[in-house]
Prior knowledge:
By secondary structure, the protein is mainly alpha-helical. The chain contains two helices and two strands; from the N terminus they run H-E-E-H. A two-stranded antiparallel sheet has the order 1-2. The chain is rod-shaped and about 150 Å long. The mean pLDDT is 80.
Amino acid sequence: MTPLQKLLGLALLILGLMASAAGVTWQVQEWRMGKKLAEQAGLYKDDLSLIGAAAAKQARDETEKRLTLEQTLAGQDQQHTKELSDAQRNQALLRDQLATADVRLSVLIEDSASGCNVPTTPGTVGVVHAARRAQLDPAHSQRIIRVTDDGDNAIIALRACQAYVRALTR
């Protein structure tokens, strides 16, 4: 072997060792990066599970709130429906009594001559002290009852709306 061949052989040997060392270094770096990536993936997985648990808890809390609100509103709806049906039943009873003349609507007539509506002698038990009353025509009585029915229904509906808004804003 000539010295040039020996030198060339030695150079090839050094290049081979360097390539081998570079390969080993590359593998070590790959192993380290793989380990770091695995650690990061584990941390990411832990973060995702915490976020998922928090979201599930929030969803359960919101569902409980919604169910509580629905139960409250259902109870209020039943109460207002009962109030409305009771009022309608009472109104129908009063209309029937007016129609059959069991009950008559009347108004007080002011006695301007005496200047006083309170009788001087005790009479029959009653709240009204006026001596004179005028009975209303049954048709007018029916119209008055219809107007008061509408007013009663409006008041009941208004209370139901107010209760609904209060329940929603709590």
